[in-house]
Amino acid sequence: MNATYIDEIGKHEGEEVTLRGWLYNKRSSGKLHFLQVRDGTGTIQCVVFKKEVPAEVFALADHIAQESSIVVRGTVRADDRAPLGYEVGVTGLELVGESTDYPITPKEHGVAFLLDHRHLWVRSSRQHAVLRIRSEITHACRRYFDERGFVLFDSPILTPAACEGTTTLFETPYFDETAYLTQSGQLYLEAGALAFGKAYCFGPTFRAEKSKTRRHLMEFWMVEPEVAYMDLAGDMDLAEDFVEYVVGSVVANRAHELAVLERDVDRLKSVRKPFPRISYEQALDLLHDKGIEVAWGADFGAEEETAISESFDRPVLVHRYPAECKAFYMKNDPDNEKLALCVDMLAPEGYGEIIGGGQREDDWQTLKDKIAAHDLPQEAFAWYLDLRRYGSVPHAGFGMGIERVVAWICGLHHVRETIPFPRMLERLTP
Ligand code: 4AD
Ligand code: MG
Question: Quick check: CB of 398 below 6 Å from ligand 1?
Answer without folding.
Answer: yes
